[in-house]
Write a structure and sequence with these properties.
It is a single chain. This protein is of the alpha/beta class. It has one domain: Cytidine Deaminase, domain 2 (3-Layer(aba) Sandwich). The chain contains four helices and ten strands; from the N terminus they run αβαβββββαββββα. An eight-stranded mixed sheet has the order 9-8-7-6-2-3-1-10, with helices on one face. Strands 4-5 form a two-stranded antiparallel ribbon. The longest helix is centred in the first third of the chain and has 14 residues. The two termini are about 15 Å apart. Pfam families: Prok-JAB. GO terms for molecular function: metal ion binding; metallopeptidase activity. It comes from Saliphagus infecundisoli. This is Mov34/MPN/PAD-1 family protein.
Length: about 170
């Protein structure tokens, strides 16, 4: 397992926050006719007020230097952060096809959930896949997400706790 692979959590994903999915669909629409791409981050369900074990996809990280056009998106791996909360990827298919390409399948090894968003980017214009490219169910969960300002509100003790959980 490579360093990049080790940074992605690989199990226990319950679903995606509705607000996160809405953000990704809106962002894909704004990027159209070019592809949109980002990495998915997750939070413990209990931290979101859910009485369940597992993870909920709560964030989309857009990587600086990502190159996109109408048929592909390429992330510079040197720009991918060391993020223990990363669980997979999201990208759009401007042609609306909700099936992974050969190139998509090659990138699906990192993480356990990968979303493809298709034009015209409405609430039902997406599909989740596992790392092998097989469709998987992903519940859309209505939860209140933490304030984005809290993302940068951490200290060494918080980092140590995250690493212990991982």
């Amino acid at each position: 397992m490579g360093l990049l692979d080790a940074l992605f959590r690989s199990s226990g994903i319950l679903g995606i926050a509705e607000e996160t999915l809405d953000f990704a669909l809106e962002s894909a629409g704004e990027s159209h006719p070019d592809e949109y791409m980002g990495l998915l981050r997750a939070s413990e369900a209990s931290r979101l007020g859910l009485d369940r074990e597992g993870l909920v996809v709560t964030d989309v990280l857009v990587i600086p230097g990502t190159e996109t056009n109408s048929v592909s998106a390429t992330v510079r791996t040197s720009q991918v952060p060391n993020d223990v909360n990363a669980v997979g990827s999201v990208h759009s298919h401007p042609n609306g096809v909700l099936e992974p390409s050969v190139e998509d399948l090659a990138s699906f090894g990192r993480g356990s959930v990968h979303l493809i968003l298709g034009a015209p980017y409405r609430n039902h214009d997406w599909q989740a896949f596992d790392s092998a490219g097989e469709p998987r169910d992903l519940e859309v969960i209505d939860v209140s997400l933490p304030d984005p300002e809290d993302f940068f509100d951490f200290d060494q003790a918080d980092i140590d706790e995250e690493l212990r959980e991982w």
